[in-house]
Amino acid sequence: MEKREKHFVLVHGACHGAWCWYKVTTFLRSAGHKVTALDLAAAGANGKRLDELNSISDYHEPLMKFMTSLVTGEKVILVAHSLGGVSVSVAMERFPQKISVAAFVSAFMPGPDFNLSTVYQEQLLPHMGHAFITCEAMN
Length: 139
What we know:
Layout: E1 7-11, H1 22-30, E2 34-38, H2 56-59, H3 61-69, E3 76-82, H4 84-94, E4 99-107, H5 116-128, H6 131-134
């Protein structure tokens, strides 16, 4: 039986960057898979500053650009952590033909009855307040 290389796209959570996936990236590559760990906007090594983001769409723009760049017929496995689940959910809606499967690892998984506004109002704001927006709670 032929073993085929899979392409994993790792999407970090709030106040993190692609760096947080270094052990997973090493493991998957050593198993023969292709791995892309992205920095979402204003995170990790991404050059945008937080005050340049006007919406959540700006935040997940790097993932959307990456998904757009995939060649026709290429499918990836999306892996989301924490707030990265919001970005992966959007990618699933926009690019279903380019995704073989998505995994949500302790990640938000918005849907028709659990949208981003609900996530923010019911899950984030009560626990972190407005500090969530600037990642002050992480320092």
